[in-house]
Protein backbone atom coordinates (compact mmCIF):
# COMPACT_ATOMS: atom_id res chain seq x y z
CA UNK A 1 0.00 0.00 0.00
CA UNK A 2 1.32 3.42 -0.88
CA UNK A 3 0.41 6.95 0.06
CA UNK A 4 0.27 9.71 -2.55
CA UNK A 5 2.82 12.48 -2.62
CA UNK A 6 1.79 15.85 -1.24
CA UNK A 7 1.04 18.26 -4.02
CA UNK A 8 3.37 21.25 -4.25
CA UNK A 9 2.69 24.69 -5.64
CA UNK A 10 4.25 24.68 -9.12
CA UNK A 11 5.19 27.62 -11.30
CA UNK A 12 5.00 26.95 -15.06
CA UNK A 13 7.90 28.54 -16.92
CA UNK A 14 6.99 30.14 -20.24
CA UNK A 15 10.51 29.56 -21.51
CA UNK A 16 13.21 27.29 -20.16
CA UNK A 17 16.89 28.08 -20.03
CA UNK A 18 18.99 25.61 -22.01
CA UNK A 19 22.25 27.55 -22.20
CA UNK A 20 25.50 25.70 -21.61
CA UNK A 21 28.11 27.38 -19.42
CA UNK A 22 31.55 25.89 -19.77
CA UNK A 23 34.59 26.45 -17.65
CA UNK A 24 37.28 24.60 -15.76
CA UNK A 25 37.28 25.23 -12.00
CA UNK A 26 39.21 21.98 -11.81
CA UNK A 27 41.11 20.33 -14.61
CA UNK A 28 38.93 18.18 -16.81
CA UNK A 29 35.58 19.48 -15.53
CA UNK A 30 32.96 20.95 -17.85
CA UNK A 31 30.35 23.18 -16.23
CA UNK A 32 26.92 23.02 -17.79
CA UNK A 33 23.65 24.78 -16.98
CA UNK A 34 20.67 23.52 -18.98
CA UNK A 35 17.94 24.22 -16.43
CA UNK A 36 15.59 25.27 -15.15
CA UNK A 37 13.37 23.50 -17.65
CA UNK A 38 9.64 22.89 -17.56
CA UNK A 39 7.67 23.20 -14.33
CA UNK A 40 9.54 24.25 -11.19
CA UNK A 41 7.99 23.98 -7.69
CA UNK A 42 8.13 27.17 -5.63
CA UNK A 43 11.08 27.31 -3.25
CA UNK A 44 13.17 24.80 -5.19
CA UNK A 45 14.37 27.09 -8.00
CA UNK A 46 18.06 26.84 -7.09
CA UNK A 47 17.97 23.05 -7.31
CA UNK A 48 16.01 22.88 -10.57
CA UNK A 49 18.30 25.39 -12.25
CA UNK A 50 21.62 24.22 -10.85
CA UNK A 51 24.83 23.96 -12.79
CA UNK A 52 26.35 20.49 -13.20
CA UNK A 53 30.07 19.81 -13.38
CA UNK A 54 30.77 16.89 -15.71
CA UNK A 55 34.10 15.12 -15.28
CA UNK A 56 35.92 11.79 -15.46
CA UNK A 57 33.97 8.98 -13.80
CA UNK A 58 36.96 7.27 -12.17
CA UNK A 59 36.65 9.06 -8.80
CA UNK A 60 32.97 8.09 -8.58
CA UNK A 61 33.73 4.37 -8.31
CA UNK A 62 32.99 2.87 -4.89
CA UNK A 63 33.62 -0.85 -5.50
CA UNK A 64 35.90 -3.00 -7.61
CA UNK A 65 33.03 -3.54 -10.03
CA UNK A 66 32.43 0.16 -10.66
CA UNK A 67 36.18 0.83 -10.73
CA UNK A 68 36.52 -1.50 -13.71
CA UNK A 69 33.40 0.00 -15.31
CA UNK A 70 34.35 3.67 -14.85
CA UNK A 71 38.14 3.67 -15.28
CA UNK A 72 39.58 5.18 -18.48
CA UNK A 73 36.18 5.70 -20.11
CA UNK A 74 36.13 8.46 -22.72
CA UNK A 75 32.53 7.72 -23.69
CA UNK A 76 30.92 8.59 -20.36
CA UNK A 77 31.12 11.47 -17.89
CA UNK A 78 29.93 11.94 -14.32
CA UNK A 79 28.56 14.69 -12.10
CA UNK A 80 26.74 15.17 -8.82
CA UNK A 81 23.28 16.68 -8.42
CA UNK A 82 22.45 18.60 -5.23
CA UNK A 83 19.01 18.03 -3.68
CA UNK A 84 17.41 18.76 -0.29
CA UNK A 85 17.73 15.97 2.25
CA UNK A 86 14.19 16.82 3.36
CA UNK A 87 11.95 18.46 0.78
CA UNK A 88 9.84 19.88 3.59
CA UNK A 89 12.93 21.92 4.55
CA UNK A 90 14.50 22.98 1.22
CA UNK A 91 16.74 25.55 2.90
CA UNK A 92 18.16 22.94 5.26
CA UNK A 93 20.75 20.20 4.79
CA UNK A 94 21.47 19.04 1.25
CA UNK A 95 22.84 15.79 -0.19
CA UNK A 96 24.37 14.89 -3.57
CA UNK A 97 23.41 12.22 -6.09
CA UNK A 98 25.82 10.58 -8.53
CA UNK A 99 25.03 10.85 -12.25
CA UNK A 100 26.67 9.11 -15.23
CA UNK A 101 25.98 10.23 -18.79
CA UNK A 102 26.70 9.02 -22.29
CA UNK A 103 25.86 11.88 -24.63
CA UNK A 104 23.71 11.41 -27.73
CA UNK A 105 25.55 10.94 -31.00
CA UNK A 106 23.10 12.82 -33.20
CA UNK A 107 19.91 14.89 -33.17
CA UNK A 108 19.19 14.84 -29.43
CA UNK A 109 15.62 14.49 -28.16
CA UNK A 110 16.66 14.69 -24.52
CA UNK A 111 17.86 12.46 -21.70
CA UNK A 112 16.82 8.86 -21.12
CA UNK A 113 17.10 8.46 -17.35
CA UNK A 114 17.64 4.89 -16.10
CA UNK A 115 17.07 3.12 -12.79
CA UNK A 116 17.86 -0.63 -12.60
CA UNK A 117 15.86 -1.40 -9.47
CA UNK A 118 16.88 -3.10 -6.26
CA UNK A 119 15.89 -1.04 -4.42
CA UNK A 120 19.45 0.09 -3.90
CA UNK A 121 21.05 -0.83 -7.24
CA UNK A 122 23.38 1.63 -8.97
CA UNK A 123 21.94 3.41 -11.99
CA UNK A 124 25.40 4.74 -12.81
CA UNK A 125 26.70 1.19 -13.12
CA UNK A 126 23.70 0.21 -15.25
CA UNK A 127 24.20 3.14 -17.62
CA UNK A 128 27.93 2.42 -17.88
CA UNK A 129 27.09 -1.14 -18.89
CA UNK A 130 24.60 0.00 -21.53
CA UNK A 131 26.71 2.82 -22.98
CA UNK A 132 28.61 0.74 -25.52
CA UNK A 133 25.46 -1.22 -26.39
CA UNK A 134 23.54 1.86 -27.55
CA UNK A 135 26.45 3.18 -29.60
CA UNK A 136 25.54 3.45 -33.29
CA UNK A 137 21.87 2.72 -32.55
CA UNK A 138 18.86 4.94 -33.10
CA UNK A 139 18.44 5.19 -29.33
CA UNK A 140 22.05 6.29 -28.84
CA UNK A 141 21.68 8.83 -31.64
CA UNK A 142 18.67 10.51 -30.09
CA UNK A 143 19.15 10.34 -26.32
CA UNK A 144 21.71 11.10 -23.68
CA UNK A 145 21.83 7.95 -21.57
CA UNK A 146 21.79 9.01 -17.88
CA UNK A 147 22.04 6.64 -14.93
CA UNK A 148 21.76 7.86 -11.36
CA UNK A 149 22.57 6.44 -7.96
CA UNK A 150 19.53 7.19 -5.77
CA UNK A 151 20.00 8.93 -2.45
CA UNK A 152 22.08 6.83 -0.08
CA UNK A 153 23.30 4.54 -2.88
CA UNK A 154 26.73 4.06 -4.47
CA UNK A 155 28.39 7.32 -5.48
CA UNK A 156 25.68 9.44 -3.87
CA UNK A 157 26.71 11.27 -0.72
CA UNK A 158 26.17 10.33 2.07
CA UNK A 159 25.76 6.57 1.69
CA UNK A 160 23.47 4.29 3.65
CA UNK A 161 25.92 1.97 5.34
CA UNK A 162 25.09 -0.32 8.26
CA UNK A 163 27.59 -3.18 8.29
CA UNK A 164 31.30 -3.30 7.54
CA UNK A 165 32.53 -5.71 4.88
CA UNK A 166 33.77 -8.11 7.55
CA UNK A 167 30.46 -7.91 9.43
CA UNK A 168 28.56 -8.66 6.22
CA UNK A 169 30.68 -11.76 5.60
CA UNK A 170 29.91 -12.99 9.13
CA UNK A 171 26.20 -12.20 8.76
CA UNK A 172 25.99 -14.38 5.65
CA UNK A 173 27.10 -17.40 7.74
CA UNK A 174 24.21 -16.97 10.20
CA UNK A 175 21.43 -19.21 8.88
CA UNK A 176 18.65 -18.17 11.33
CA UNK A 177 16.86 -21.46 10.61
CA UNK A 178 15.84 -22.13 14.21
CA UNK A 179 12.11 -21.37 14.41
CA UNK A 180 11.67 -22.43 18.05
CA UNK A 181 10.72 -19.58 20.44
CA UNK A 182 14.36 -19.13 21.56
CA UNK A 183 15.50 -19.19 17.93
CA UNK A 184 12.95 -16.56 16.91
CA UNK A 185 13.94 -14.42 19.90
CA UNK A 186 17.62 -14.61 18.86
CA UNK A 187 16.81 -13.65 15.27
CA UNK A 188 14.73 -10.68 16.42
CA UNK A 189 17.50 -9.48 18.71
CA UNK A 190 19.93 -9.60 15.77
CA UNK A 191 17.47 -7.62 13.64
CA UNK A 192 17.07 -5.05 16.39
CA UNK A 193 20.85 -4.61 16.67
CA UNK A 194 21.06 -4.22 12.89
CA UNK A 195 18.47 -1.42 12.94
CA UNK A 196 20.34 0.32 15.74
CA UNK A 197 23.63 0.03 13.87
CA UNK A 198 22.04 1.52 10.73
CA UNK A 199 20.83 4.52 12.72
CA UNK A 200 24.22 4.92 14.35
CA UNK A 201 26.34 4.72 11.18
CA UNK A 202 24.00 6.29 8.60
CA UNK A 203 22.06 8.77 10.74
CA UNK A 204 18.33 8.77 11.41
CA UNK A 205 17.83 11.92 9.31
CA UNK A 206 19.13 10.15 6.18
CA UNK A 207 17.12 7.00 6.92
CA UNK A 208 13.95 9.07 7.30
CA UNK A 209 14.35 10.54 3.81
CA UNK A 210 15.71 7.69 1.71
CA UNK A 211 12.44 6.24 0.41
CA UNK A 212 10.74 6.31 -2.97
CA UNK A 213 8.75 9.39 -1.98
CA UNK A 214 11.98 11.39 -2.01
CA UNK A 215 13.59 9.62 -4.98
CA UNK A 216 10.60 10.70 -7.08
CA UNK A 217 11.21 14.32 -6.07
CA UNK A 218 14.91 13.93 -6.90
CA UNK A 219 13.97 12.61 -10.34
CA UNK A 220 12.04 15.78 -11.11
CA UNK A 221 14.97 17.96 -10.04
CA UNK A 222 17.18 15.83 -12.29
CA UNK A 223 14.82 16.24 -15.24
CA UNK A 224 15.03 20.01 -15.03
CA UNK A 225 18.79 20.24 -14.35
CA UNK A 226 19.41 18.03 -17.41
CA UNK A 227 17.42 20.50 -19.49
CA UNK A 228 14.33 18.38 -20.17
CA UNK A 229 10.87 19.93 -19.95
CA UNK A 230 9.42 16.42 -19.83
CA UNK A 231 10.90 13.24 -18.37
CA UNK A 232 11.86 10.24 -20.51
CA UNK A 233 12.53 7.34 -18.15
CA UNK A 234 13.43 3.65 -18.21
CA UNK A 235 12.84 1.73 -14.98
CA UNK A 236 13.54 -1.93 -14.30
CA UNK A 237 12.01 -3.93 -11.43
CA UNK A 238 11.82 -1.60 -8.38
CA UNK A 239 12.64 1.14 -10.88
CA UNK A 240 9.09 0.65 -12.19
CA UNK A 241 7.87 1.59 -8.72
CA UNK A 242 9.85 4.83 -8.98
CA UNK A 243 8.38 5.45 -12.44
CA UNK A 244 4.84 4.79 -11.25
CA UNK A 245 5.42 7.08 -8.29
CA UNK A 246 6.64 9.81 -10.62
CA UNK A 247 3.57 9.33 -12.82
CA UNK A 248 1.37 9.88 -9.77
CA UNK A 249 3.26 12.92 -8.51
CA UNK A 250 4.13 14.65 -11.80
CA UNK A 251 1.88 13.28 -14.58
CA UNK A 252 2.15 16.51 -16.55
CA UNK A 253 5.95 16.28 -16.54
CA UNK A 254 6.08 12.87 -18.28
CA UNK A 255 7.14 12.48 -21.91
CA UNK A 256 7.61 8.69 -21.94
CA UNK A 257 8.00 5.87 -19.41
CA UNK A 258 9.24 2.34 -20.14
CA UNK A 259 8.55 0.14 -17.10
CA UNK A 260 10.09 -3.33 -17.41
CA UNK A 261 9.58 -6.01 -14.74
CA UNK A 262 6.77 -4.30 -12.89
CA UNK A 263 6.07 -4.03 -9.19
CA UNK A 264 2.29 -4.55 -8.80
CA UNK A 265 0.80 -1.32 -7.43
CA UNK A 266 -2.32 -3.11 -6.19
CA UNK A 267 -0.57 -5.65 -3.92
CA UNK A 268 0.57 -5.14 -0.34
CA UNK A 269 4.00 -6.44 0.62
CA UNK A 270 2.66 -9.74 1.97
CA UNK A 271 0.83 -10.65 -1.23
CA UNK A 272 3.78 -9.43 -3.30
CA UNK A 273 6.17 -11.67 -1.34
CA UNK A 274 3.97 -14.75 -1.81
CA UNK A 275 3.61 -14.01 -5.53
CA UNK A 276 7.39 -13.67 -5.80
CA UNK A 277 7.87 -17.01 -4.06
CA UNK A 278 5.58 -18.62 -6.62
CA UNK A 279 7.53 -16.84 -9.37
CA UNK A 280 10.84 -18.29 -8.19
CA UNK A 281 9.29 -21.75 -7.96
CA UNK A 282 8.05 -21.42 -11.55
CA UNK A 283 11.56 -20.42 -12.66
CA UNK A 284 13.09 -23.31 -10.70
CA UNK A 285 10.67 -25.75 -12.34
CA UNK A 286 11.74 -24.45 -15.76
CA UNK A 287 15.40 -24.86 -14.76
CA UNK A 288 14.74 -28.39 -13.53
CA UNK A 289 13.03 -29.33 -16.81
CA UNK A 290 15.98 -27.92 -18.78
CA UNK A 291 18.46 -29.66 -16.54
CA UNK A 292 16.71 -33.06 -16.72
CA UNK A 293 17.46 -33.25 -20.44
CA UNK A 294 21.21 -33.20 -19.75
CA UNK A 295 23.40 -36.17 -18.93
CA UNK A 296 25.17 -34.13 -16.24
CA UNK A 297 22.11 -32.70 -14.46
CA UNK A 298 22.88 -32.30 -10.75
CA UNK A 299 19.20 -32.77 -9.89
CA UNK A 300 18.69 -36.00 -11.83
CA UNK A 301 16.54 -36.95 -14.80
CA UNK A 302 13.10 -36.54 -13.19
CA UNK A 303 11.91 -32.91 -12.85
CA UNK A 304 9.17 -34.06 -10.46
CA UNK A 305 11.89 -34.96 -7.95
CA UNK A 306 13.94 -31.76 -8.43
CA UNK A 307 12.63 -29.96 -5.32
CA UNK A 308 13.75 -32.78 -3.06
CA UNK A 309 17.04 -33.22 -4.92
CA UNK A 310 17.83 -29.54 -4.45
CA UNK A 311 16.99 -29.69 -0.75
CA UNK A 312 19.12 -32.83 -0.31
CA UNK A 313 22.11 -30.98 -1.79
CA UNK A 314 21.75 -27.70 0.08
CA UNK A 315 20.32 -28.51 3.53
CA UNK A 316 23.50 -30.22 4.84
CA UNK A 317 25.21 -26.83 4.56
CA UNK A 318 23.10 -25.61 7.50
CA UNK A 319 25.23 -27.81 9.75
CA UNK A 320 28.42 -28.13 7.71
CA UNK A 321 29.37 -25.17 5.48
CA UNK A 322 31.78 -25.92 2.65
CA UNK A 323 35.20 -24.28 2.55
CA UNK A 324 35.83 -21.93 -0.38
CA UNK A 325 39.44 -20.76 -0.09
CA UNK A 326 39.50 -18.71 3.16
CA UNK A 327 35.70 -18.46 3.37
CA UNK A 328 32.79 -20.84 3.87
CA UNK A 329 29.73 -21.42 1.69
CA UNK A 330 26.73 -21.34 4.03
CA UNK A 331 23.25 -22.70 3.46
CA UNK A 332 22.06 -19.11 2.98
CA UNK A 333 24.71 -18.51 0.34
CA UNK A 334 23.76 -21.65 -1.58
CA UNK A 335 20.10 -20.59 -1.59
CA UNK A 336 21.06 -17.05 -2.60
CA UNK A 337 23.25 -18.36 -5.42
CA UNK A 338 20.34 -20.43 -6.73
CA UNK A 339 17.98 -17.44 -6.48
CA UNK A 340 20.50 -15.35 -8.43
CA UNK A 341 20.53 -17.97 -11.19
CA UNK A 342 16.73 -17.81 -11.50
CA UNK A 343 17.01 -14.25 -12.87
CA UNK A 344 18.25 -15.41 -16.28
CA UNK A 345 18.46 -18.60 -18.33
CA UNK A 346 22.09 -17.64 -19.02
CA UNK A 347 22.85 -18.52 -15.39
CA UNK A 348 21.30 -21.99 -15.51
CA UNK A 349 24.54 -23.56 -16.77
CA UNK A 350 26.60 -22.08 -13.89
CA UNK A 351 23.91 -23.15 -11.40
CA UNK A 352 24.07 -26.76 -12.61
CA UNK A 353 27.86 -26.60 -12.35
CA UNK A 354 27.60 -25.17 -8.83
CA UNK A 355 25.19 -27.88 -7.68
CA UNK A 356 27.41 -30.56 -9.21
CA UNK A 357 30.37 -29.07 -7.33
CA UNK A 358 28.35 -29.26 -4.12
CA UNK A 359 28.05 -33.03 -4.58
CA UNK A 360 31.85 -33.08 -4.42
CA UNK A 361 32.03 -30.85 -1.34
CA UNK A 362 32.96 -27.74 -3.31
CA UNK A 363 31.19 -24.37 -3.41
CA UNK A 364 33.17 -22.09 -5.72
CA UNK A 365 30.49 -21.36 -8.33
CA UNK A 366 27.61 -21.02 -5.86
CA UNK A 367 29.74 -18.58 -3.87
CA UNK A 368 30.38 -16.53 -7.00
CA UNK A 369 26.66 -16.43 -7.72
CA UNK A 370 25.89 -15.39 -4.14
CA UNK A 371 28.62 -12.72 -4.19
CA UNK A 372 27.08 -11.30 -7.35
CA UNK A 373 23.67 -11.12 -5.69
CA UNK A 374 25.13 -9.44 -2.60
CA UNK A 375 27.25 -7.00 -4.65
CA UNK A 376 30.58 -8.23 -3.23
CA UNK A 377 33.64 -7.67 -5.39
CA UNK A 378 36.77 -9.83 -5.66
CA UNK A 379 38.53 -7.70 -3.07
CA UNK A 380 35.86 -8.46 -0.49
CA UNK A 381 34.23 -5.04 -0.65
CA UNK A 382 30.45 -4.73 -0.63
CA UNK A 383 28.49 -2.04 -2.37
CA UNK A 384 25.64 -0.20 -0.69
CA UNK A 385 22.93 -2.44 -2.19
CA UNK A 386 22.22 -4.62 0.86
CA UNK A 387 21.87 -1.86 3.43
CA UNK A 388 20.07 0.52 1.06
CA UNK A 389 17.61 -2.24 0.16
CA UNK A 390 16.59 -2.63 3.80
CA UNK A 391 16.54 1.11 4.50
CA UNK A 392 14.27 1.85 1.53
CA UNK A 393 12.00 -1.10 2.24
CA UNK A 394 11.58 -0.02 5.86
CA UNK A 395 10.28 3.45 4.95
CA UNK A 396 8.38 2.43 1.81
CA UNK A 397 6.19 -0.22 3.43
CA UNK A 398 3.98 -0.38 6.54
CA UNK A 399 5.37 -2.39 9.44
CA UNK A 400 4.18 -5.98 9.83
CA UNK A 401 4.32 -6.75 13.55
CA UNK A 402 1.38 -9.13 14.01
CA UNK A 403 2.97 -12.49 14.80
CA UNK A 404 -0.05 -14.39 13.49
CA UNK A 405 0.42 -12.66 10.15
CA UNK A 406 4.15 -13.41 10.17
CA UNK A 407 3.53 -17.10 10.88
CA UNK A 408 0.94 -17.24 8.11
CA UNK A 409 3.34 -15.62 5.65
CA UNK A 410 6.03 -18.18 6.52
CA UNK A 411 3.59 -21.04 5.88
CA UNK A 412 2.30 -19.58 2.64
CA UNK A 413 5.81 -18.87 1.32
CA UNK A 414 6.94 -22.44 1.96
CA UNK A 415 3.86 -23.67 0.09
CA UNK A 416 4.48 -21.27 -2.81
CA UNK A 417 8.18 -22.17 -3.16
CA UNK A 418 8.68 -25.76 -1.96
CA UNK A 419 12.21 -25.97 -3.41
CA UNK A 420 13.17 -23.41 -0.71
CA UNK A 421 11.43 -25.26 2.15
CA UNK A 422 14.10 -25.92 4.78
CA UNK A 423 11.95 -28.49 6.59
CA UNK A 424 11.69 -26.48 9.81
CA UNK A 425 8.30 -25.54 11.31
CA UNK A 426 6.95 -22.37 9.70
CA UNK A 427 7.26 -19.35 11.99
CA UNK A 428 7.95 -15.70 11.28
CA UNK A 429 10.23 -13.30 13.12
CA UNK A 430 10.02 -9.54 13.35
CA UNK A 431 12.38 -8.15 10.73
CA UNK A 432 14.66 -5.13 11.01
CA UNK A 433 11.85 -2.82 9.88
CA UNK A 434 9.89 -3.60 13.05
CA UNK A 435 12.72 -1.93 14.99
CA UNK A 436 13.50 0.81 12.47
CA UNK A 437 14.33 4.16 14.13
CA UNK A 438 12.16 6.30 11.81
CA UNK A 439 8.52 5.94 10.72
CA UNK A 440 7.53 4.75 7.24
CA UNK A 441 6.60 7.23 4.52
CA UNK A 442 4.16 4.92 2.76
CA UNK A 443 2.70 6.21 -0.50
CA UNK A 444 -0.97 5.32 -1.04
CA UNK A 445 -1.93 4.74 -4.70
CA UNK A 446 -4.21 7.26 -6.32
CA UNK A 447 -5.81 7.60 -9.75
CA UNK A 448 -3.48 9.17 -12.31
CA UNK A 449 -4.89 11.76 -14.69
CA UNK A 450 -3.16 13.70 -17.46
CA UNK A 451 -0.54 11.01 -18.08
CA UNK A 452 0.59 10.32 -21.66
CA UNK A 453 0.65 6.68 -22.81
CA UNK A 454 3.36 4.63 -21.09
CA UNK A 455 4.86 1.26 -22.07
CA UNK A 456 4.94 -1.66 -19.62
CA UNK A 457 7.01 -4.74 -20.52
CA UNK A 458 6.24 -7.97 -18.67
CA UNK A 459 7.88 -11.39 -18.97
CA UNK A 460 5.83 -14.58 -18.67
CA UNK A 461 8.52 -16.42 -16.68
CA UNK A 462 9.82 -13.51 -14.60
CA UNK A 463 10.66 -14.93 -11.13
CA UNK A 464 11.04 -11.67 -9.20
CA UNK A 465 8.19 -9.59 -10.65
CA UNK A 466 5.66 -12.08 -12.01
CA UNK A 467 3.90 -11.43 -15.29
CA UNK A 468 0.53 -10.50 -13.79
CA UNK A 469 2.15 -7.59 -11.96
CA UNK A 470 2.94 -5.97 -15.32
CA UNK A 471 -0.60 -6.54 -16.53
CA UNK A 472 -1.85 -4.84 -13.38
CA UNK A 473 0.51 -1.86 -13.69
CA UNK A 474 -0.37 -1.28 -17.36
CA UNK A 475 -4.05 -1.26 -16.42
CA UNK A 476 -3.44 1.05 -13.45
CA UNK A 477 -1.58 3.61 -15.58
CA UNK A 478 -3.73 3.17 -18.68
CA UNK A 479 -0.63 2.20 -20.66
CA UNK A 480 0.36 -0.27 -23.34
CA UNK A 481 1.60 -3.77 -22.52
CA UNK A 482 4.32 -5.69 -24.35
CA UNK A 483 4.49 -9.39 -23.39
CA UNK A 484 7.80 -11.26 -23.57
CA UNK A 485 7.65 -15.03 -23.46
CA UNK A 486 10.75 -16.17 -21.61
CA UNK A 487 12.38 -17.08 -18.30
CA UNK A 488 14.25 -14.05 -16.97
CA UNK A 489 13.87 -10.86 -14.99
CA UNK A 490 13.48 -7.87 -17.38
CA UNK A 491 14.39 -7.89 -21.08
CA UNK A 492 14.58 -4.46 -22.76
CA UNK A 493 18.02 -3.46 -24.10
CA UNK A 494 19.32 -6.99 -23.62
CA UNK A 495 19.63 -7.80 -27.31
CA UNK A 496 16.21 -9.28 -28.05
CA UNK A 497 15.45 -8.56 -31.71
CA UNK A 498 11.72 -8.22 -31.07
CA UNK A 499 11.59 -6.33 -27.75
CA UNK A 500 14.34 -3.76 -28.35
CA UNK A 501 12.87 -2.27 -31.55
CA UNK A 502 9.44 -1.96 -29.90
CA UNK A 503 10.94 -0.12 -26.93
CA UNK A 504 13.11 2.08 -29.15
CA UNK A 505 10.15 3.04 -31.36
CA UNK A 506 8.13 4.03 -28.32
CA UNK A 507 10.90 6.13 -26.76
CA UNK A 508 11.83 7.90 -30.00
CA UNK A 509 8.48 8.26 -31.77
CA UNK A 510 6.10 7.75 -28.80
CA UNK A 511 4.46 4.89 -30.71
CA UNK A 512 3.00 2.08 -28.60
CA UNK A 513 2.89 -1.50 -29.92
CA UNK A 514 -0.44 -2.91 -31.07
CA UNK A 515 -2.58 -4.35 -28.31
CA UNK A 516 -1.68 -7.97 -27.62
CA UNK A 517 1.86 -7.74 -29.05
CA UNK A 518 4.06 -10.62 -27.86
CA UNK A 519 7.76 -11.31 -28.28
CA UNK A 520 9.86 -14.37 -27.55
UniProtKB/TrEMBL annotation:
Annotated signal sequence range: 1-22
The keyword Cell inner membrane belongs to this UniProt entry's keyword annotation: no
Parts of the chain that traverse the membrane: none
InterPro entries per UniProt: AB_hydrolase_1, AB_hydrolase_fold, Serine_prot/Carboxylest_S33
AB hydrolase-1 domain location: 112-494
UniProt KW keywords: Hydrolase, Signal
UniProt record similarity statement: Belongs to the peptidase S33 family.
Entry protein name: Pimeloyl-ACP methyl ester carboxylesterase
Organism: Saccharothrix longispora
